[in-house]
Description:
Distance between the termini: 42 Å
Number of helices: 4
Number of domains: 1
Shape: flat
Radius of gyration: 18 Å
Helix content: 40-55%
Largest sheet: none
Amino acid sequence: xxxxxxxxxxxxxxxxxxxxxxxxxxxxxxxxxxxxxxxxxxxxxxxxxxxxxxxxxxxxxxxxxxxxxxxxxxxxxxxxxxxxx
Length: 85
């Protein structure tokens, strides 16, 4: 019988009250080990749907920009994405 190595699970972290969720998420992402990153990537990709093809003559930017589900502007989204990179 083949044994499956389960990825190491990081214990939950108690977040300080009122802390910025994005900053906390970035800190958690940046504190992962290479093994945790690989395990997370594999887990996410295994659960993800295959990508849909873009409509003829469209770019990803064409189909995404201006269609956010919340009330954030494109500029606010781009600023948050910049913080993540």
